[in-house]
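Hey, quick one: can you model this chain's 3D structure?
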Amino acid sequence: MKRFIFIQAFFLFILINIEAQSNRPMATEIPRAEPSALPAPPPERRITVHALTWDAPREMKFKDRLIITLRANSRISRLPPSSFFMPKVPQNVILASASITPQEASSGIVLKLTLIPLSAGLFVLPSYTLNQDDSTRFLVPELRLLVRE
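Sure thing. Here's the predicted structure for all 149 residues.
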């Protein structure tokens, strides 16, 4: 009789372990993630990029006066003042802003400069980028001009 009770207890123990193991996830199962409230991504910010170009000859004579212009290649709805586009003035030159007529502005000119080199050699204005606000960017290319004696 003891042997019979022992065998029943043994089988009951095995059945309980089998039942307990069947409720556990298997090692290959991936537990389901609860849906969480993720914040919505911010709206995509569009940046308008305007490429500008210099209108200038490739060379000039020493101590001559030359007018160079910076022109927009695309239509700009909110044009900043011309002082916004003023580059850093390198040494050995006089570089002064000139006024822009309404006709020049309508043709895309955003900056007009008077250039007077004070020495012969290579005059360079490096390229630069200007940000008007978070959505408008202006790319100004490098200007290279040979100044001859």
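One thing worth noting: The helical segments are 2-22, 102-106.
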